[in-house]
């Protein structure tokens, strides 16, 4: 199970949402997703309360620098006892405070994903409340669009008849169709040309800092590029295999 990307809109913003698995076996994938977030939604089941991996995810969130967390307490339709819901919320807030998140102040929404999917009005309203919390609690991030293009490569695909696509989140700068780019790190640096930019299955003229994109590379074979390398403006970065601490 890898992190999966979806997109959605609120009246104020467009969100790229990276879904990180909660299962303990998939923590490494959670790190891949978490390291590129402007904020996070911590999902806790009201029926279980905080689980051991909830603590792990909060700690990882702190370590990889997630700046803001909103809590969605799920399955609240399965808990009749109001006091129990309050207790779970209190536990989650305390756990977040333990890792230096503002546990007393951050938004906690008590909802039911299943209830909302089934069209039940009270639970649909909670999803709207969650979207409003995203818009108001997480500030507009500043994007480094004026700097030299850089994108860590998260995944590599081969598309029949089109070539090799690398995916990742653009850390800085802008990537335009037709731009020359360098594949840097692990192996010898290789230059190629970006012949296509795609985001959520839509073809674009360019990708900008902060966006999750796929870049089609001219004449690049699938085995010539791998996760862990970066795509960059040629000459803008140099890889090192040794350094003095």
From TrEMBL:
This is Elongation factor Tu. One of its GO terms (molecular function) is GTP binding. GO terms for cellular component: cytosol. The keyword GTP-binding applies. InterPro entries: EF-Tu_GTPase, EFTu-like_2, EFTU_2, P-loop_NTPase, T_Tr_GTP-bd_dom, Transl_B-barrel_sf. It comes from the Bacteria. Keywords: Elongation factor, GTP-binding, Hydrolase, Nucleotide-binding, Protein biosynthesis. It holds the Pfam family GTP_EFTU. Signal peptide: none annotated. Residues 1-142 form the Tr-type G domain. Coiled coil: none annotated.
């Amino acid at each position: 199970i890898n992190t999966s990307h979806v997109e959605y809109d609120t009246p104020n913003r467009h969100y790229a949402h990276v879904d990180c698995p909660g299962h303990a076996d998939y923590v490494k994938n959670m790190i891949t997703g978490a390291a590129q977030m402007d904020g996070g939604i911590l999902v806790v089941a009201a029926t279980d309360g905080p689980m051991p991996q909830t603590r792990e995810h909060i700690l990882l969130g702190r370590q990889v620098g997630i700046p803001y967390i909103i809590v969605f307490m799920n399955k609240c339709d399965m808990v009749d006892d109001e006091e129990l819901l309050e207790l779970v919320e209190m536990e989650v807030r305390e756990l977040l405070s333990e890792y230096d998140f503002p546990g007393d102040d951050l938004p906690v929404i008590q909802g039911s994903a299943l209830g909302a999917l089934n069209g039940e009005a009270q639970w649909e309203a909670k999803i709207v409340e969650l979207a409003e919390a995203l818009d108001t609690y997480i500030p507009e991030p500043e994007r480094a669009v004026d700097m030299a293009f850089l994108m860590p490569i998260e995944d590599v695909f081969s598309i029949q008849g089109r070539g090799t696509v690398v995916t990742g989140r653009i850390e800085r700068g802008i990537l335009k169709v037709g731009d020359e780019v360098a594949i840097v790190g692990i192996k010898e640096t290789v230059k190629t040309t970006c012949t296509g930019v795609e985001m959520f299955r839509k073809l674009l003229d360019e990708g900008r800092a902060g966006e999750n994109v796929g870049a089609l590379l001219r004449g690049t074979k699938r085995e010539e590029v791998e996760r862990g390398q970066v795509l960059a403006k040629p000459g803008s970065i140099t890889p090192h295999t040794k350094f003095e601490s």
